[in-house]
Each structure stands twice: as structure tokens, then as C-alpha cells.
Amino acid sequence: MLFIILTVLFSYRNTILANKKGQNAMVWTIITIASLFLSAFIGTLIILLFIYKGAFNPLEFSKFLDTNIPAMLTLHLIAAGGGLATGYILERMPDRKQ
Is residue 97 assigned to a domain? Predict the structure, then answer.
């Protein structure tokens, strides 16, 4: 649920920022969503490699994430980094010429 909220929040924020910068808002929305999913995947790998103990079983790993709140929070914070990185790239672009 939190990931959906993050996706909507960062997509909306970066769409407004792209319009302000004179960029194509739809392209930057797709880039934002892709970066969120990519960073969530990287976060999952980090949790799997460094926090999760035991042999990998998808059902057990899912149960681990459901019961381990700090691990799930870490995953969402890493995913939020992808949205923030996309916003940072947009912020550094020059404004639209008047």
C-alpha cells in the first residue's frame, strides 16, 4: 500500500516539475515509475543479501517482509530514493524559456 502511495506522490510531483521545466510530463512520469520499481528491486536484493537469513524461498521471504517492519520500511525508503533521484535530475534542468 505504501509503495502505491509513493508511486502516485512522486509521479504527480515530477509531472508538475516536468511541466514547469518545459519537458514532456508523460515521459517523466514513466521514468519516475520505472525508477521507483528499479530501486524497489535493488532494495529487495539488499534486504535479501544482508538482512534475510536462511535459504531463499519466495513464500518465506514474503512472510518475512510482512512480519519484519524495519525491513519493509527499509525497502520503501530505498524505493523512495528512486523517485527523489528522478526529481533531482528534473530540478537541475533549466527552466522553460518564456
Answer: no
Q: What is the pLDDT along the chain (98 residues), one digit of tens a residue?
A: 888 999 999 999 999 999 999 999 999 999 999 999 999 999 999 999 999 998 899 999 999 999 999 999 999 999 999 999 999 999 999 887 76
Q: How many domains does the chain have?
A: 1
pTM higher than 0.90: no
d(CA 44, CA 58): 12
